[in-house]
Amino acid sequence: MSLEFEHVPVLAKEAITMLSWRQGGLYVDATVGGGGHARLLLEAVGPEAKLVAIDQDATAIAAARDGLQDEAHRVTFIHSNFVHLREVLTERNLVPIDGIIFDLGVSSYQLDEIERGFSYRHDAPLDMRMDQTLTTTARDLVSTLSEEELADIIFSYGEERWAKRIASFIVAEREVNPISTTGELVAIIKAAIPAGARRGGPHPARRTFQALRIAVNRELEYLEWALDDAVELLRPRGRIAVISFHSLEDRIVKQTFTRFAAGCQCPSDLPVCVCGIRPKVKLLTRRPIVPKPAEIAQNPRARSAKLRVAQKVLRDEGDEY
Predict the structure, then answer these.
(1) Local structure of 172: helix, strand or coil
(2) pLDDT at 142
(3) For 235-272, what is each residue's pLDDT tens digit?
(4) Which of 248, 178, 255 lies closest to 211, judged by CA?
(5) Which of 105, 177, 234, 273 is the most exposed place for a label (fewest CB within 10 A)?
(6) Which residues touch 37 (CB under 8 Å, ≥6 apart)?
(7) Whole-Å CA distances, 235 to 26, 276, 284, 286, 299
């Protein structure tokens, strides 16, 4: 297994500066990847700090172990999806935590490792599993789902206007020939989207590939669950930072943070609060932080990144810090 897991950490300075509020604390990188954010976080929070490094990709965990071997004495490596965050932390008595970072989406390494089937630019097995222990692949989805189910996935997760047409072309093709590779799927998508619609904008297969990847890995529903657990696992004043790369992810993060930041839900005409609901977090980024032009020039994959950060409030003092 190659350990050349290269992934340039996006919005690294901004994320680590906002996350590292307490020296010597316990922090979590829920998507450690190659360890870029993890190393910067360890440097920022001091030699007494501990880090939990989690990733669902076994290759990423191996690469992080290799890259952080000089800090191994203060890092706990866990091969798991962040949807199991509460379970893996509590069973190891690694709670409460002082901060947690999520760097969402597919990594540069995963895109560039052709045989993983994430990229529409190379012909490869139609896989798209971030965790290779999963049993369902993208090939399984395009081979077994109904036309309506495929169209719903492609439209909902890819925001693809030609979703119904692409789904119908997939179903028609699989009745004649099995769809086994990314190249075969790209050809179907190109045939389904009218030529005029393919002349401008991104690659015609980008949205469909994004949708299938999200569906295979259950990324959005797992994200909702993980964010809920992460906030509960934070100690008062603990911080959560999330870097997202498309509007669906960012919407979930924004809505979750807004929900936790909301206070009293009583009707406005009541003189006093009777619901007892108090904010759980304070928003530290009213608007998302985005990469500067210099970072985008150096790393084009950063262009769609958005960073949102929240801080857990003190239970006895509302949102006063």
Answers:
(1) helix
(2) 98
(3) 999 999 999 999 999 999 999 999 999 978 888 888 88
(4) 248
(5) 177
(6) 9, 12, 15, 16, 29, 101, 103
(7) 10, 21, 16, 22, 34
% the chain with pLDDT above 70: 96
Dist CA 307 CA 45 (whole Å): 20
- Residue 317 predicted with pLDDT over 80: no
Task: Please tell me the distance from the alpha carbon of residue 95 to that of residue 113, in angstroms, as a whole number.
Answer: 35
Task: At 12, give phi and psi (nearest 5°).
Answer: -65, -50
* Distance between CA atoms of residues 135 and 216, nearest Å: 9
Strand partners, 50: 26
Q: How many residues does the chain have?
A: 321
Q: Taking residues 276-282, report their average pLDDT.
A: 91
Determine the residue type at 193: I
Q: Is the pTM of the predicted complex or chain greater than 0.85?
A: yes
Structure tokens, 112: 């560039």
Question: What fold characterizes domain 131-217?
Answer: DNA polymerase; domain 1 (1.10.150)
Q: List every span in the chain annotated with CATH 3.40.50.150.
A: 12-103+219-312
As a whole number of angstroms, the distance between CA 50 and CA 305 comes to 27
- CA-closest candidate to residue 126, choices 191, 56, 52, 216: 216
- The token pair at 86 is 């509460």
Strand partners, 76: 52
3-class secondary structure for 248-277? HHHHHHHHHHHHHHCCCCCCCCCCCCCCCC
- DSSP state for residue 181 in the 8-state scheme: B
Question: CATH 1.10.150.170 region(s) of the chain?
Answer: 131-217
Amino acid found at 109: Y
